[in-house]
Amino acid sequence: MKKLSARRRHPLAAVVVLLLALAGTGGLYTAFAPASRAKAEETAQSLAIEEGERLYQVGCASCHGTEGEGTADGPSLVGVGAAAVDFQVGTGRMPAQQPGPQIPQKRNIYTQAEIDRMAAYIASFGPGPAIPAKNQYNPEGADAAKGGELFRNNCAQCHNFTGKGGALTYGKYAPSLRGVSDKHIYEAMLTGPQNMPAFPDSVLTEQNKKDIIAYLNAVNGPETVNPGGLGLGGLGPVAEGLFGWVFGLGGLVVVAVWVAARTAKAKRS
């Protein structure tokens, strides 16, 4: 009887064994699962860069160099970042049809997946602005009035007051912003394409950029009308004043001359 009692297990022995098993399983998962996930992500990134390099060599290397170092026909791409690639290729400006003072927007020839791979490859040349997430450029809840103030202070000199674009020097121009996607407007402010200066977050914060996008959507939306009459291109008070002087005052002068001529003719008769 005493021998059987000595062999009897403690009531908590099964619980202790179960806890040890769970702890061991959790430790093994912690040790190996993150490494496997990180390795899978690294592999996917390597494959994206490899595919991006293939696309780059076909469509970009002739102007920008085989490793993005730049040539006489195209600038260096070292450090431009993925956001610049997403903007330039996503709006069809790149690959360019021909060199010139301004590369116009045209139909895009790449899918978004191809653009992402090309951006990953060019981003590997050096650190630069990343492609923004949707929450960074989504203007929902942004202050359009504040955006209008920021736009007039920083952008209207080239794009005019409502973003309809304008001429610059030596054949360059500021393009119209009507119909441009929120993401591409954000990327343009972030990277400063072609003749445009860059506005990093140290100059215009992420919220500032959202406010500007909200303003442009408000003044260039499909439901936008000109409650005051003819919009005159949205060029602002100078153009409107000039229109008033030339046509308004000119019309009054013509009417005055006509009345004076009829009055003189009536007196002679």
From TrEMBL:
* Membrane topology value: Multi-pass membrane protein
Q: What is its EC number?
A: 7.1.1.8
Question: What EC class does the entry list?
Answer: translocase
* Presence of keyword Magnesium: no
Residue span, Cytochrome c domain: 47-126, 142-220
Q: Where in the cell is it found?
A: Cell membrane
Record's catalysed reaction(s): a quinol + 2 Fe(III)-[cytochrome c](out) = a quinone + 2 Fe(II)-[cytochrome c](out) + 2 H(+)(out)
The record's section on InterPro entries has:
bc1_cytC-su, Cyt_c-like_dom, Cyt_c-like_dom_sf, Cytochrome_c_Oxidase_Subunit
- Keywords recorded for this protein, A-Z: Cell membrane, Electron transport, Heme, Iron, Membrane, Metal-binding, Repeat, Respiratory chain, Translocase, Transmembrane, Transmembrane helix, Transport
Task: Quote the SUPFAM superfamilies the UniProt record gives.
Answer: Cytochrome c (SSF46626)
Ranges that cross the membrane: 242-261
Q: What is its main location?
A: membrane
Quaternary structure annotation from Swiss-Prot or TrEMBL: The cytochrome bc1 complex is composed of a cytochrome b (QcrB), the Rieske iron-sulfur protein (QcrA) and a diheme cytochrome c (QcrC) subunit.
The cross-references to PANTHER family, in alphabetical order and at most eight, read: CBB3-TYPE CYTOCHROME C OXIDASE SUBUNIT FIXP, CYTOCHROME BC1 COMPLEX CYTOCHROME C SUBUNIT
The name under which this protein is listed is Cytochrome bc1 complex cytochrome c subunit
